[in-house]
Amino acid sequence: MITDDDVRIAGVWVTGPSTVDVKFRGSAKRFHVELAGWIATGGATLAPLRDPKVFERAAVSDHGAAVSWDDGEGDLSIDAFHLRKLVFEQMPFSNQALRAWQERVEISNAEAADFVGVSLSTWSTYRVDAAIPRSVALVLRAAERDPLLLQAHFRPRHAGRPRGEAAHMRGGFQVQVDQPRRK
User: What does the pLDDT look like over 152-166, one tens digit per residue?
Assistant: First the structure.
């Protein structure tokens, strides 16, 4: 298994104006990665990569530790660790990945649906066979990477009827209960 400390790039192929295919050592698979967001947020340092003639010069550098566009002599490079993170973030989020996420964070279907802002029936279809929307995948990946996100927005469900609701129900009908006025 490749760990974050020993990830190395075996090959890189330019496939578009801001996309490359990359092969990591120890893997037979080539991964497609879009670098437009990385370039756009890289300010003046990465601005030269917007030029297709510069971008097409992508090459493995530093013994597989990076992809560089300037022969490893300047700042036009991305290290293997971050490149692999981008590949992972851009992979489709499968139904199996969604179920595994839910098991790891140990929340119910209703709680997971509430957390991502969808109905319980929608969450249930995500668990089985529906395409997972990109926005849901982003939230789930971010919540796992940063537990504070889950802690800040997760609201546990409790068994039974919510408190106070039983006092307002009589014979299956909701009864209006006057609340004392605050001064």
Answer: 999 998 876 656 554
pLDDT for residue 105: 94
Model's pTM, two decimal places?
0.75
CA angle 84, 133, 40 (to 5 degrees): 45
Which residues are registered as beta bridge partners of 30? Answer: 23
Do the beta carbons of residue 126 and residue 116 sit within 8 Å?
A: no
| pLDDT score recorded for residue 72 | 67
Q: What is the 3-state secondary structure (H, E, C) of the chain?
A: CCCHHHCCEEEEEECCCCEEEEEECCCCCEEEEECHHHHHCCHHHHHHHHCHHHHCCCEEEHHHCEEECCCCCCCCEEEHHHHHHHHHHHCCCCHHHHHHHHHHHCCCHHHHHHHHCCCHHHHHHHHHCCCCCHHHHHHHHHHHHCHHHHHHHCCCCCCCCCCCCHHHEECCEECCCCCCCCC
Strand pairing class (77-79; 169-170): unpaired
Q: How far apart are CA 106 and CA 123, in angstroms?
A: 15
The answer to whether 144 and 106 are in contact (CB under 8 A) is: no
